[in-house]
């Protein structure tokens, strides 16, 4: 039996031989849903995706159709839990067969059952995952994670395997409104980064791309920063040059920069004389 505690605040603990160990929220849900996402990203045709699903879930499902229904139910829960901003054009191209809109979360089983009448996006989730939920022990509990820390109120889940556990995690996170998952629009990786939607790897690649692209405007602003460090231009002069660049163009700003470095700010000496008098 695998034992997990999921708090109402989105903190998750996994019970190991050494005691409770903190893991990312939806730890087992991500382990199963992410390879399915990557399979859709790498293959446009469904046949390679089905082969990947068959390899991903060797047991305990009787046939391939049951495996696909299970993974689609998990992925529907994921699409409820990630922010709306994750639904980019890149994601729609990667998953052409998916109705990628942001459905309304349902917080109780009763609301999920009512969704059948409304033909809701989440109804198939309940039909597929509820039988696995019933084979697990799920009950409210209080966990004392560390000495001196406040006790956590949440749910204690005891499941026979990772498939049952991922089902319980998905349903609990949907019902409790624990929306801490992020879906990277570039690589379709599920992550928990709070800085934007991109995962850490894609965010680093984007930063490197920005540094590689040296436009004339970027070169000019870098040159102004260099002049400021070397004491050639003051803060007032740099602000003036940026204003000239925006209003009159880059070439005019470059000419005025050369004039400023050679002769100083226009009218500066006159203002200094007036202030002395």
UniProtKB/TrEMBL annotation:
Q: Which domain of life is it from?
A: Bacteria
The protein here is known as: Uncharacterized protein
Q: Which organism is it from?
A: Ammonifex thiophilus
């Amino acid at each position: 039996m695998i034992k997990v505690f999921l708090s109402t605040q989105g903190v998750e603990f996994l019970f190991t031989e050494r005691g409770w160990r903190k893991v990312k929220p939806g730890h087992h849900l991500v382990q199963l849903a992410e390879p399915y996402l990557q399979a859709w990203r790498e293959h446009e045709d469904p046949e390679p995706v089905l082969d990947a699903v068959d390899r991903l879930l060797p047991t305990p499902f009787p046939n391939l159709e049951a495996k696909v229904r299970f993974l689609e139910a998990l992925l529907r829960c994921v699409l409820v839990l990630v922010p709306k901003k994750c639904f980019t054009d890149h994601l729609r191209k990667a998953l052409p067969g998916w109705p990628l809109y942001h459905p309304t979360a349902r917080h109780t089983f009763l609301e999920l059952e009512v969704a059948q009448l409304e033909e809701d996006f989440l109804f198939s989730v309940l039909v597929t995952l509820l039988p696995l939920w019933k084979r697990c022990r799920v009950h409210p509990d209080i966990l004392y994670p560390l000495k001196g820390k406040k006790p956590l109120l949440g749910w204690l889940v005891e499941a026979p395997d990772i498939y049952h556990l991922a089902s319980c995690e998905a349903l609990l996170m949907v019902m409790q409104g624990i929306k801490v998952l992020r879906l990277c629009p570039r690589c379709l990786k599920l992550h928990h980064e709070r800085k934007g939607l991109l995962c850490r790897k894609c965010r680093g690649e984007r930063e490197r791309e920005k540094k590689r692209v040296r436009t004339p405007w970027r070169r000019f602003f870098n040159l102004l920063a260099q002049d400021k460090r070397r004491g050639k231009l003051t803060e007032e002069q740099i602000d003036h040059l940026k204003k000239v660049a925006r209003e009159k163009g880059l070439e005019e700003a470059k000419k005025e920069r050369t004039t400023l470095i050679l002769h100083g700010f226009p009218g500066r000496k006159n203002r200094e004389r007036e202030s002395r008098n």
